[in-house]
Input
Amino acid sequence: METNNNGNKRFLISIVLAAVLGGLLFGYDTAVISGAEKGLQAFFLGAKDFTYTDGWHGFTCASALIGCIIGSALSGLLASRWGRKRSLVIAGVLFFVSALGSMNPEFLFFEKGQPTMSLLVAFNIYRIIGGIGVGLASAICPMYIGEVAPSNIRGMLVSWNQFAIIFGQLVVYFVNFLILGEHTNPVIESIGQGMNAVVAGSDPWTITTGWRYMFGSEAVPAGLFAVLICLVPETPRYLVMIGRDNMAFEVLAKINGRSKAEKILDDIKQTISVKTEPLCTYGMLVIFIGIMLSVFQQIVGINAVLYYAPRIFKDMGVDNEMAFTVLMGVINILFTLVAVFTVEKLGRKPLLISGSIGMAIGAMGVALTFGHAGMEMITAASIMIYSASFMFSWGPICWVLIAEIFPNTIRGKAVAIAVAFQWIFNWIVSSTFVPMFNMHLTPGDDFGHWFTYGLYGVLCVVAAVFVWKLVPETKGKTLEDMTKLWRKDK
Output
């Protein structure tokens, strides 16, 4: 219930929940491929007019990331010109179109169930459309939450966005598991030179139908998000930027109470003399830190684990790779909650540094034990430590800092650049993981296994040093304090 002193907590919670549904779709869309990719591969291996090679499959699995780069690059322009809210509505529509199109890429133009090169192009276009939605949501959802949240709980509320991302991944692991049911994924065998074949006796349902249901299942949360986001207000910071001070005050009053709203509005107006300023107004250091936060979040290698989890657990020799994948998803959820409930008490930097050290330990554990007989459980535990450490540190805290570290008048453009770098390096890590992991100095050796995770472990240590030396602590600071911080340091 609204009061003059404390504002309406229910109102704040409701609009944050609507926004974090975009984070859930972010996680859902990026992880749906992990369960669907084998059936999809087997389907296109049946094409008559072209050969569906490992290269084509790798591109198809990663094609959404092309859209993510495009969407994140456009996010600053859209957020500044059309506002945070309308940009998120666009993202929701793109999610919905992508889900239905990926489920039925033959729609209107192609014969149902006949794999061809043209159909592959259409499928990838739908995945890229969804990726654009992911790119927009990944930049604008934390920006939206950061701009409506009171400073004393902003870190916690933005962290809920990361929780939603991981929860979305866990949901889609369960959904894929339930869709698969008693059916089995097709068995693919290599026939040399990057070519594969479906082993005789593979379940035909997963090849013709299963992967379609997995992609199509995203339409439900996508449609819900597109509707709910229409009901939330625009952020007060953006409203001030476009001269709608009265509307901004009403939103601030609902969230913070009328007396606090007056002071917050005054602070916003003092730091927003114009709608935007040149990107380098506050110097290059703040831009560099924002970019490197995004880069380190990716080059520590986490998405190589999240995207290829079933295959990694299978290579470890475990009996039920999907069960281990779901277990990892549950652990990820629990440790993301650690960040949610400690970020305002411990601060951003301690969580990032301790998480980096935990990730380094986990990655080195994988490097030293992977492929050794009798050490499968140690390897699996190391993967869990590595993943859990990311989930209470770089997973949520990177988004918190990106949402709050930039001054108001450059936030849209700066966040867009930082998040675009995130998706570029996501693509680099995802596309290089398999070739690195499969490297051999001599036939049959494990060089690629220990080199890949050893490299990730070293980069985790470098990330800890970067945070210690360069990243400012932002706990308890208002977004307007960022303007004062970087003007002083300029």
Q: What stands out?
A: The mean pLDDT is 85. The two ends are 43 Å apart (CA to CA).
